[in-house]
Specification:
By secondary structure, the protein is mainly beta. The protein is about 10% helix and about 35% strand. It has helices at about 1-10, 20-30; strands at about 30-35, 35-40, 45, 50-60, 65, 70-80, 85, 90, 100, 105, 110, 115-120, 125, 130, 135, 145, 150-155. The strands form 3 sheets. Strands 1, 2, 4, 6, 10, 11, 13, 14, 16 and 17 form a 10-stranded mixed β-sheet that branches. A 5-stranded parallel β-sheet has the order 3-5-7-12-15. Strand 8 (about 90) and strand 9 (about 100) form a beta hairpin. The two termini are about 25 Å apart. The model has no long low-confidence stretch (mean pLDDT about 95).
């Protein structure tokens, strides 16, 4: 399917109200997706072959998952609507404005709230929370809550979390 398949997915299939179809297509495009992954309608994936989601994960509506530099997401992760995961940028100091890629890693039980942005080279630790609208440019320690632009620690999350994301809407 290659680049054409990615284009068809991002321009058409992401708007079809079938999680099963979206997940099956992403797997055919090379994404490594575990059980109970729910990709809500309108979310785009760039370079699905560089995306790994361990399982039990919700990716909300209208997210952009730019996996060109590699994205690794753990278990029981919630990525709310309109989140941007951006693994590419440009070197502002380079006279040729060279492009750069870097991975993003998101630990188990992390929560990225609506309209947050995570840039290349960042690791979000286990159980960490990124507040709505935050821009994460540096690693986030496990069980830390960050917010703001750029994101800074604003609290701690209790470590006793027992939820499992093994459910989700099929027609969304």
């Amino acid at each position: 399917m290659g680049r054409r398949g990615e284009l068809v997915f991002n321009r058409a299939l992401t708007h079809v109200p079938s999680n099963e179809l979206r997940i099956r297509t992403l797997r055919r495009l090379g994404a490594d997706l575990g059980e109970h992954v729910y990709l809500f309608g309108g979310s785009e994936v760039l370079e699905p072959g560089n995306l790994r989601i361990a399982g039990r994960c919700h990716v909300g509506r209208f997210c952009q998952i730019d996996a060109r530099g590699g994205i690794d997401i753990g278990y029981d992760v919630v990525i709310a609507s309109h989140v941007l995961l951006v693994t590419a940028d440009h070197d502002l100091r380079d006279p040729g404005f060279a492009g750069r890629l870097g991975p993003i890693t998101i630990g188990d039980r992390a929560w990225l709230a609506s309209r947050s942005t995570v840039v290349r080279g960042v690791t979000i630790g286990e159980g960490a929370v990124v507040a709505a609208g935050a821009v994460v440019t540096q690693d986030v320690d496990p069980w830390t809550i960050v917010g703001g632009v750029p994101a800074r620690p604003i609290g701690e999350r209790p470590r006793e979390q027992h939820y499992r994301i093994d459910y989700g809407p099929e027609r969304y």
